[in-house]
Amino acid sequence: MWSKYKILSRVLLVVVCAVIIVYFMPHEHTFTYDYSVGKPWKYSKIVAEYDFPIYKTEQQLKNERDSVLRSLKPFFNYTESVGELQLHNFKTDFSTKLALLINVRERTQLARLLAEVYARGIASQSEYGMVADSVDNVSIIIKGASAQVRSVKHIYSPRTAYEFIMSAVDSLHLSKEAVARCNINNYITPNLVYDSRRTEQMRKEMLDNIAQSHGLVLRDTKIIDEGEIVTEHTMRVLQSLQKETEKRSASGIEAVLLIVGQVMCVLILLGVFMTFLLMYRPDYARDGRSIVMLLSMILIFTVAASLVQNPTELNVYMVPFAIVPIFIRVFMDSRTAFSTMLIIVSICSLSLHNPYEFMLLEIVAGLTAIFTLKELTSRSQLLRAVLVITVVTALIKLGYDLSQGFILSTIDPSWYERIAINGVLLLFAYPLMLLFEKMFGFISSVTFVELSNINTPLLRRLSKEAQGTFNHSMQVANLAAEVAAKIGANVQLVRTAALYHDIGKLQNPGFFTENQSGENPHDNLAEEQSAQIIIRHISDGIEMADKYRLPTVIKECISTHHGRSKAKYFYVNYVKKHPDEPVNEELFTYPGPNPQTREQAILMIADSVEAASRSLPEKTEESIRDLVNKIVDQQMADGCFTNCPITFLDISVAKEVLISSLKTIYHARVSYPTMEPVAKEEEETSETATEPQKTQEKANLQ
Fold it and tell me: The whole model's pTM is what?
């Protein structure tokens, strides 16, 4: 049953996941193609979706701006009164101080030179230097009238004005010594003032008038196709398309619509994924940690793909997406692995320019991972799988390039470098798997293999302190693994669980027949006490599993390998001794629960059959078949498998596998018609093997 809390929590997880994914996705129409002049175009055909101009390159614009600024004529305001005042001062000083230094003719010549300098204009030293190196002409405003254009060479700074006057002395046959004594510098003052406001206004107008483009690409025009060589002109068109794309995506409505589209696609894809789980994998949909792990995988890899797309989207091919099917195949199943991979690739393709090629390569890589790595139990398996995945991905990329008209000489080797990097990153799946086990509580085949090592401290202790129980567990592990392999259950889980299912017997090993070599301690105990000691090996096993930090799935197998069955031997004896008394059946009933998975059911069957088979007086094919059928049929009649998804076909196959295996173990012979039927079957108290009716019970406490 789905509670409101579960439904709301799943919806909230999907929404939060979608929000985070969309947040990291590119929010503009990105243009992250990687190309250069003279190289073949590596992407699909590009056709103009709208009219756009062919923008000039930055170098072209810079050259035009430099040319415009060179032709700019800075504005200077001409102040006529400055020259008039200085000429008046010069004449006044001559009548008083300079008369003794120069004569009238010299005074007249100097006054004429000063008037000529002021007529051309004198700018301050700093303002003159500012324009002398950057422009050829200046505009001079005289009394607010229209500007007069003059060459920079025809105006002066105070220094050049003085040099001009002194250079004219010789040609005018004047005395240099006399002129020098006049301190002519005192009469040279700037009469041109730089007009920064008007100059800047003119500069801005001239720059604004520079055309940003030279040509137009019309809508539906083919720009370039895959395999074509990128020319200078094509590059300018592509750069123009990039600029226009970014300009359009920056507008408000375009950005909003883009985000809305991304949200819709991501939510729909995640919704489809959740629907798949609800319909075909309801166990995962109900299990919170499974949902969190699957959505985390989707979130991590889609965000990673978004983050690496700059500066080029080709970097997305370095993301090891094949880790997803590897993990989910190992922890769950292949269909869920492929479905998760498909959702991740679909979301990532939303922001790519060549989604078909991306999806082709990644889906092939994912399928290869699923087919080559059914389970992961060693690093060598992963290494082989990574090698196969990398080679297959490179081959499908090569085949795709050749099918698109590329020739070997034009194929970009950087693609294969990225595929190789992807393969190296896939090797991190092994250590990352251990991290995921700790984070989400899943158990991989690697962990099961490690736990199955009989040199682990707990199994070594079991082999020393309870040798009979250890041998029984090893035999059950072999039988259960064969059944699991035949019906498609988790072999590693069943094998490992079987090795640990009776560890609770370490608390009282002598009370179990397989460990007894002499006196039976149950002879001195009441049936209720004996039953409680036998039943307690379940709770003792859980405590030991906690102490040794065994995984939850192992503890679940320990608690369910007897289900809710009874310690039948002591129960029957008690009923016989107290025929007229009511029986407290809970004293003789295992705490359970009954098996809830196929693996737990297999363990219950194998455990009961192996224990009971030891009590067969004659191990013939007929007796083994009869024993297996009766035990399993009785378990089914008792409802032991009501809560687990094991099918009648699975049970039938399990029976045949167990019969065949036990025949091999005991070298069973064919039973002849004249032989007496087996009179009784023996049962071990700690197991759930049910004796057939009308057979004598015998205590064989194991």
Answer: 0.66
